[in-house]
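Q: Sequence in, structure out?
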Amino acid sequence: MDEKLASLKKAMKNTVFKDLQFTDRHRRTISSSINGGDSEKNKVLFAVLQLVRTEKTGMEILTALKSQALFAFEGKEGMMYTFLHELENKRWIVGEWKAERKYYKLTETGAKVLGKASDMRKEVKTFTQSWSLGE
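A: Exactly. Output:
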């Protein structure tokens, strides 16, 4: 059976997949999907938790995300406040009104989540650097 599969794989490589080309962007996307890498949502969550280690308003968070090329809330800035409210419900951040502005800050629970996420990112990065997808 293994021999038949090997010959099928070889035949497909020489015919069906002969002209198949992947751009670097495609390779990164595929690699990220296979490795359980950062999705856009994970990147935004991680960035927001990092940003609110010091008090920030929603607008300051939006501006900082854009400067990091994270445009998840582009054109739908109101969704940012829904997202922040969800983080408040999870008790990862706390919001406090000051002078007609709401400031968000990381909680102790949020700091633990951020620490675990940071450790996981390091593990995934180390692992993915140690092997390739046949590149």
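DSSP finds six helices and three strands in the chain.
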